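Fold this: DNA-binding LacI/PurR family transcriptional regulator
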Amino acid sequence: MASKIRLEDIAKQAGVSTATVSRVLNDKSLVAPETRHAVIEALDLLGYERPEKLRRRSGGLIGMIVPELTNPIFPMFVQKLQTAMSLQGYTPLLATQLAGSTTEDAYVDTMLEYDVSGIVFLSGLHADLTANLDHYARITEKRIPYVTINGANPALQAPDFSCDDHFAAALAVRHLIHQGHTQIGLATGPTRFSVARAKSEAYLSTMRRLLPNVRPMQEHTLYTVEGGQLAAAALYERGCTAIIFASDVMALGAIRYFQNMGVDVPRNVSIIGFDDSRLVAFANPPLTTLHQPVKAMADAAVGTLIAMINGEKPAFESMKFPPELVVRASTGTLRKN
């Protein structure tokens, strides 16, 4: 090895005892998979070379097709998916989509050539209710199981693991009403995407139930900083004192727009995001947002996929996960001017 492994350093990094580290390094049994992974991760983070006995061959490849990685929520999903696969002895094969680059169906063909055991689709074409779904049929014809995350599509017979948008809408709207807001808007993506449509329908039903005399206000735009800015301008002009955004990136774009316009957040307008991606707690102001349970979603998706790979009946076929409202400084009590 390039350097001698100090058990104390590994134990401190992994949050376990030195005895546990020793058992993992010597490939002993009686160590939980999560603990084993934590020790191996500590080895990697501290720059140690893994002992030969820990360099096991993969049980197979699992493909992951994800959108661009500039939105922090997607790397978070990738990390948790990779961990869940590694704990089960599989190696992830990652494909990232970029505008103008390789298409999802081309990535599928490549993964089929690599003889993957299964595929995870995150916020892909399965979420587009107008998309051509022929490549999903090709996967099924090859008898390769796949699952989707955040984008249930009734035309596909695949398990889907998504956030519960109705629960999310109720949480966000109730929080804003509690702070005195009634002119509450929603900014989300184009309604051809199932997640955008679900959020829109959930927002409308919640508003009609809780504020039956108030007209709902929506903007459908892109899941980008610029999309958030455009939606913020339109909804504020229409009289919104609070806006719910379908992603943290959009919400941060809105905050930047309001700051440039001299509109105080949250004194003049309250902002709620969606995802609870990394660093939003350090925004100015820190962003109130709906936390996606990324680890739970990734674990369930991978567990179901591996059960399908093994020819077993999964414990569950599809799941909706309730998000958690994380209240920070971007929302506040309505102030009468």
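The mean pLDDT is 92. DSSP finds eleven helices and twelve strands in the chain.
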